[in-house]
């Protein structure tokens, strides 16, 4: 237990400075990017980013499956198995990535995106999307280093990589603002190169510190691939459902309310999302540590950790509620301008983030335990409900973009009730089996 707590404390303390710095930089980045583009172009940029971010959900659950399997191999001191797991994951992700790029490129060529999103005369829109897709696919493969760090309890490296990426993005936007007129194309290229550079550097750092894990084609294993994907298939269904619930908002708002509405919505949501990001400092290392505790049947550590996580949730909820009274003033100081807010947007964003933090506490444990059927059912139900409910609320109420986040809140409510119950039942089962 002491060793596990030491790992947790070191990971959190090392991550904290990098996380806080990256959050500050991301806030500066948003202001600088909004200054470089106009409000409408920024809304289009956010919508493009939302659509292309869907790619990361199509890894067939391999990333999360890898996380559990590699943690097991490391716990068993089986270096050869760990190497085979990593090599197999890279090969499989590369095949998926190439397939996705070809498929999406063909879809972009034949699909009328401007008409679908109700956009008019957006210069080089398809080229911009294609470039963003290309870099997203490249980093879809290269960013596997994050799951490798998670499995080895080195989550602080992931936080540092985000900090470096935010720094490069800020430099990129400042240079573009000084030297060029507003251009979504140049922004896409600049951000894409920055992300790829960071992924290459931190992949190199991981394998330079873990040379025994350096993959090669000979280490690829069909059996391991099947083993990872057998659990990964349920993770994949969860990921696709999460994609629908959490990343379609901007697309829906652009289509039915226009890109200007996306800007206000995304800025408000972005601010509240920082609370979720900060909470992840504590939660990120816990998945692999839960897996370790389950393998050791350390029930007391699991229960104490969940209690501490709930205390963290209480503190964050208190801060979020207090902060909601000052959100408009904070955003005005942050961006140097006033925004027009639809009714209840701020309150709904606050409620949604609190629900996410609370449900993540239990989701991390269930993922580590491999108990994911309940999540799968809940996420699939939420995905089926989310889009039609969002559209209905936009069309039949005066909530505007607030209706979209309200729909997401409604689809997430079952998580708040059922996931803690499932965790309690699973811990009871572990205690009885032990």
What does this structure look like?
This protein has 434 residues and is mostly helical. It has one domain (2-433). Helix content is 83%, strand content 0%. It has 18 helices and no strands. The chain has helices spanning 2-36, 39-52, 62-75, 79-110, 113-116, 125-142, 144-151, 155-179, 184-209, 222-247, 249-257, 259-283, 286-295, 299-324, 327-335, 345-369, 373-396, 402-433. α1 (2-36) packs parallel to α8 (155-179) and α3 (62-75) packs antiparallel against α4. The longest helix is centred in the N-terminal third of the chain and has 35 residues, at 2-36. The chain is globular. The two termini are 17 Å apart.
Which spans of ≥5 residues are poorly predicted at pLDDT below 50?
A: none
Taking the sheet with the most strands, its summary is: none
Order of helices and strands: HHHHHHHHHHHHHHHHHH
Tally of alpha and pi helices: 18
Number of structural units classed as domains: 1
Structural class: mainly alpha
Overall mean pLDDT stands at 86
Rounded to the nearest angstrom, the radius of gyration is 22 Å
User: How far apart lie the N and C ends?
Assistant: 17 Å
How would you sum up the global shape?
Answer: globular
**Helix proportion of residues, in percent?**
over 70%
Number of strands: 0
Tell me the strand percentage band.
under 5%
Main location: membrane
Organism: Vibrio parahaemolyticus
Keywords: Cell membrane, Membrane, Transmembrane, Transmembrane helix
Subcellular location: Cell membrane
């Amino acid at each position: 237990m002491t060793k596990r707590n030491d790992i947790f404390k070191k990971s959190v303390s090392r991550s904290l400075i990098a996380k806080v710095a990256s959050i500050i930089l991301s806030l500066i980045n948003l202001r600088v990017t909004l200054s470089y583009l106009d409000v409408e172009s920024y809304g289009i940029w956010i919508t493009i980013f939302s659509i292309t971010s869907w790619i990361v959900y199509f890894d067939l659950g391999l990333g999360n499956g890898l996380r559990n399997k590699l943690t097991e191999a490391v716990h068993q001191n089986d270096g050869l198995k760990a190497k085979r797991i990593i090599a197999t994951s890279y090969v499989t992700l590369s095949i998926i990535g190439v397939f996705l790029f070809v498929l999406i490129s063909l879809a972009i060529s034949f699909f009328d995106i401007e008409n679908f999103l109700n956009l008019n005369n957006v210069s080089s829109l398809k080229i911009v999307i294609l470039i963003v897709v290309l870099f997203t696919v490249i980093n879809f493969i290269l960013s596997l280093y994050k799951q490798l760090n998670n499995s080895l309890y080195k989550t602080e490296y992931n936080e540092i990589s985000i900090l470096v990426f935010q720094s490069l993005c800020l430099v990129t936007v400042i240079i573009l603002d000084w030297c060029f007129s507003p251009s979504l194309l140049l922004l896409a290229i600049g951000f894409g190169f920055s992300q790829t550079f960071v992924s290459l550097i931190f992949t190199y750092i991981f394998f330079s510190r873990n040379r025994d894990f350096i993959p090669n084609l000979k280490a690829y294993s069909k059996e391991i691939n099947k083993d990872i994907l057998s659990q990964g298939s349920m993770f994949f269904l969860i990921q696709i459902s999460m994609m629908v619930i959490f990343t379609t908002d901007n697309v829906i708002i652009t289509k039915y309310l226009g890109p200007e509405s996306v800007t206000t919505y995304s800025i408000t949501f972005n601010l509240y999302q920082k609370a979720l990001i900060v909470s992840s400092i504590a939660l990120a290392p816990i998945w692999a540590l839960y897996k370790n505790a389950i393998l050791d049947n350390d029930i007391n550590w699991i229960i104490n950790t969940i209690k501490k996580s709930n205390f963290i949730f209480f503190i964050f909820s208190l801060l979020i509620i207090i902060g909601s009274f000052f959100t408009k003033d904070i955003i005005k100081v942050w961006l140097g301008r006033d925004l027009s807010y639809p009714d209840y947007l701020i309150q709904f964003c606050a409620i949604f983030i609190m629900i996410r933090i609370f449900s993540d506490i239990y989701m991390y444990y269930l993922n580590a335990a491999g108990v994911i059927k309940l999540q799968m059912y809940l996420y699939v139900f939420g995905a089926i409900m989310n889009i039609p409910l969002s559209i209905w609320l936009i069309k039949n109420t005066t909530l505007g973009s607030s209706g979209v986040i309200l729909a997401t809140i409604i689809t997430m409510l079952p998580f708040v009730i059922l996931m803690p119950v499932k965790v309690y039942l699973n811990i009871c089962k572990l205690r009885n089996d032990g």
